[in-house]
Amino acid sequence: MIVVTGGSKGIGKAIVHRFAKEGHNIAVCSRSLDTLMALKKEVEETYGVEVYVQSSDLSVKEDAKKFIEFVHRIGQPVDVLVNNTGVFIPGSIHEEEDSTFELMMHTNLFSAYYITKGFVKEMMERKKGHVFNIASVASFMAYTNGGTYAISKHAMLGMSRCLREEMKPYDVKVTTVMPGATRTASWDGVDLPEERFSKSEDIADIVFASYILSERSVVEDIVIRPQLGDI
Is the whole model's pTM more than 0.90, yes or no? Predict the structure, then answer.
């Protein structure tokens, strides 16, 4: 089974569709139950797989734990975990509210930390599994108005690399995915042509391609940008 957080739209939704197309059952969460139910209906009818959904705000530790428990109750081994939950609020460190820092750190970093801990021990016991952390080009480059978002994504890259070292003896793979500007709802209202963005489906395709490599190889870091460069 594949577990995807923040999977009801954008990159997460594209990843759900890509794995479902190959016959994988999916467990997915996001904050909107209505959107999740629509996704469940669409994916099950299109691909004939099972989609298990739960409304969760993963910026809240208790919600993260409830989602972990929900997935465990399904009773299927987790082969792939995709930590995709995230939020972007533009701003600068010296001006943004403390609450902005706290929200983005809890949503973008803490959620992945707790969710990973909830599933990785089972992968270690089975000596099988793959964790994908959806980070950003902001994980290794700073830019104006990036603020806490860049901080949180830098931290996620660090977490991924630590986890990669920890998982080597257990044959569990860890991949950090660092997209540039990708056409998702985060960019709604921005007056730029479509060709200035990567497609969510392209991110999903490269995640799946990394997953199906032989047991002897792992893609550690993926950087994918629009062909025309950063925005």
Answer: yes
User: Alpha-carbon distance 60 to 81, whole Å?
Assistant: 19
Looking at 47, 52, 114, 149, which residue is catalytic?
149
Unique residue bearing structure tokens 């809240």: 60
Is-catalytic flag, 149?
Answer: yes
pLDDT band at 227 (very low <50, low <70, confident <90, very high): confident
> Given the structure tokens 């960019």, which residue do they identify?
187
Q: Which two tokens stand for residue 89?
A: 């609020």
pLDDT score of 188 more than 70: no
Contact (Cβ atoms closer than 8 angstroms) between residue 47 and residue 30: no
Which of 3.50.50.60, 3.40.50.720, 3.20.20.70, 3.30.428.10 would CATH assign to domain 2-224?
3.40.50.720
